[in-house]
Amino acid sequence: MKPLFKEVNSLDRKCYNRYKLTEDILMEHASYRIALEIYQRIKRGSRIAIVAGPGNNGGDGIGLARILLGDYEVHLYLPLGAKSPMAKLQLERFLAVGGEVIQWKKGQPIEGDVIVDALFGSGLKRDLKGELICLIKALNRQKGLKIACDIPSGLDEVGNPRPEAFKADLTITMGAEKVSLYSDFAKDYVGKVIVADLGVSFRKYRGRTNYYRLEEEDFTPPIRTRQNSHKRSYGHLGVVIGEKPGAGVLTALSALNFGTGLVTCVSDRELPLPFELISSHRLESFSAIAVGMGLGDRVALYMGRLLEELERETPMVIDADLFYHKEVVQFLNGKKVVLTPHPKEFAGLIEQLGWGKLTSREVQQKRFELVERFTDIYPEVVLVLKGANRIIAYKGQIYIDPLGDVALAKGGSGDVMGGLIAGLLAQGYHPLKGAIIGSLALSLAGRWTPNYSLTPIKLIEQVAQLGNGGISTKR
What we know:
Elements: E1 2-4, H1 9-17, H2 23-41, E2 47-52, H3 56-68, E3 73-77, H4 85-96, E4 101-102, E5 114-118, H5 130-141, E6 145-149, E7 170-174, E8 192-196, H6 202-205, E9 211-213, E10 236-240, H7 245-256, E11 262-266, E12 278-280, E13 288-291, H8 303-311, E14 316-318, E15 337-339, H9 343-352, H10 360-365, H11 367-377, E16 382-385, E17 390-394, E18 397-401, H12 413-426, H13 431-445, H14 456-463
Parallel strand pairs: 2-3, 2-5, 3-4, 5-6, 6-7, 7-8, 9-18, 10-11, 10-13, 11-12, 13-14, 14-15, 15-16
Antiparallel strand pairs: 1-9, 16-17, 17-18
Helix pairs in contact: 2-3, 3-4, 7-12, 12-13, 13-14
């Protein structure tokens, strides 16, 4: 996993004060790192269009224009001029080597084999208006390799478009990866992310953080190594079946395909179940429990017994319908509880906590803020907030899984993930480790071509292949 940072200004200041690196040195490294990507990808003589802003992000772009001039046909645009001292200095250097600034007028196309966005950096706090929105829309319509300097212009400090943002194929972020690059909204804008060193090793540059980005290498399947064992050596999971039994059955099958030794579906009704699943009319003493998937209004049937298991510290995964009931608050006192809401369900939980009423979109806009608040108040609970980039929080530490594919946007994917995590809890995994591995398993198994045709059953079948060293349908 890699560290992420909410801001890097303090890290830049450390370079100035401790390492005696000037602002100029950092900017030159930033400009050259973007140039290196262009040299490696684009043949000499191609047209490079650079749109630079008035501040230091623009300074990076102007420095890039100077470096490329002579090897490429460089078109530099400064729609807002150069205003910061460093942007002005870089402009003087660019003009000194024979560069010219092209005046941009509204409606004028900006064309190039490469289009570099260096308008605004990661500190945007206001909505863009008028001609700037028109400019970004015009850039997005153009063909060619699109590169964003530091962060796509138009994304604010938490990764929300304000209201439009540059759609990059490649984002070269300066010094360290920013949390804002991994918001759900940002996923449609950042493309591939590359970190540019700024004249000092990242190990020297970085500071303290409580945010981390999960990588494929962080995934380890629950491979069995002990030969002298039996089915209960790998846990007994109880899945509470509610008004919509299909959700719970998917959860049960998911857990069974991810190493759990025994899975029982608990229901007060007789249900047709796949032959590999066990049925029961009551909650027994399970290794772990999954509840909420398709539960509907059948909460009262199980609450007393669930609370007894909570007192015994039986690991639990809480999902779906339970977040709309006031009883969910009682589970927040547990020490081995994993919550797996999607944004609308998290809004329901927020309402039950008395934090106010939020829409799903408002939750998405405040994902990081809300997750931080939750883990500060309930540090012993593991929260897995679903989305394009899932967020996992525990004891103030926040992990982002950006590996999920759009193929997972299908009913039942969340039930499968609930089963993956619950199955690991039944096998004795710590709730945080179970949440991280379960989330990564879902992301890796969800790499499906074509991306519209993935179903929960196919997803479960993919999960079963993760321990074989890869997935045949991996894109």
